[in-house]
Amino acid sequence: MSILVTGGAGYIGSHTCVELLNANYDVIIVDNFDNSNEDSVARIEKIAGKSVKYYNVNLLDFDSLNHVFMQNKIEAVIHFAGLKAVGESVAKPLYYYETNIGSTLNLCKVMEAHHVYKLVFSSSATVYGMPDSVPLNETAPLRALNPYGRTKIIIEDLLRDVAASNENWCISLLRYFNPIGAHKSGLIGENPSGMPNNLMPFITQVAAGVREELSVFGTDYPTDDGTCVRDYIHVVDLALGHLKSLEKLDSFTGTQAYNLGTGQGYSVLEVISAFEQASGITIPKKMVERRPGDAPVSYADPTKAKNELGWSAKRDLLEMCEDSWRWQLSL
Ligand code: UD1
């Protein structure tokens, strides 16, 4: 029996594949390498010392996906594949709705046809929009601030409906906070094409001299130093959360949502300072206007994941920065 990982060549997917292989699962990757490349499959294999089967398939192509299920005995699916750039989703909403929702629809249809009912879905803390209060637990209201966030909420709703229609389904909705860091080997990590949208890749590119300086978006937020606070989580901790979640799928029917975060918030300036400590490099920065749509403070209450999955994040901010930097240096 194998675990099918959609988007397995991507940033979080590749780290999860490594941990699955380390835990002796057989892994099958389905990826169209839209925002990743085939090389990362070889790197996953190198780190784990095991081979991985992979298919260059777009999830919107029902017949090809069906073929993957015909050729393999699949026990469960971890569904990472999707588009995730907020700005792009505002510019191209139809593309985002079609890709993210259409691919999940096809996946569920194919799973149902093959009687595969175990699913772990890659959701996001973005489903909480502007939080009313922190820390955020899983009962906080869901609201989207942009089309990308809306696709995550729609998919969560869709999966709740699917699960309600047939009691065989068990679906975990993992709401990630802010994944950063990389595998210790320096072989896999986040490699955004073009201008990075997220803070850590921007910092590492400035440190490497790829970009001149970092813009700090907003210094007048109601936080200790005026910059936004987020819950940064090491991508390997996040990957391990998927394994725990997979193991627990047998313990419930329907859907369960879990926050995957550390429970600890850090401001933009604190992240910069931790990175400077980890790398020994001073990051040139300028203070600029707020970025529209940014919540002042967002961090998880990870109690449910701890109690029900037996999972909690272990790696601290310094380690996240060291590992992000090692990865950037290898590029
Ligand atoms: C962003 C997305 C979120 C998505 C997540 C995926 C927005 C508004 N939110 O979350 O929907 O799920 O990425 O990883 O895009 N910052 C700077 N300078 C920069 C970049 C970021 O100061 O060059 C600040 C931001 O204002 C924010 C913090 O750093 O306060 C973290 O930003 P980012 O890494 O983009 O994550 P989120 O905004 O939390």
Key features of this structure:
331 residues, alpha/beta, Rossmann fold, seven-stranded parallel β-sheet, two-stranded parallel ribbon, 13 strands, 18% strand, binds uridine-diphosphate-N-acetylglucosamine
Broad structural category:
alpha/beta
* Spans where pLDDT lies below 50 across 5 or more residues: none
Provide the list of bound ligands, each named once: uridine-diphosphate-N-acetylglucosamine
- In the CATH hierarchy, the architecture of the domain at 2-180 and 233-261 and 301-313 is 3-Layer(aba) Sandwich
Number of beta-strand segments: 13
Order of helices and strands: EHEHEHEHHEHEEHEEEHEEHEHH
Can you tell me the overall shape? globular
Which percent range describes the beta-strand content? 15-25%
| Count of alpha/pi helices | 11
Summarize the main sheet: 7 strands, parallel
Average pLDDT over all residues = 97
Q: Determine the N-to-C terminus distance.
A: 35 Å
CATH class assignment of the domain at 2-180 and 233-261 and 301-313:
Alpha Beta
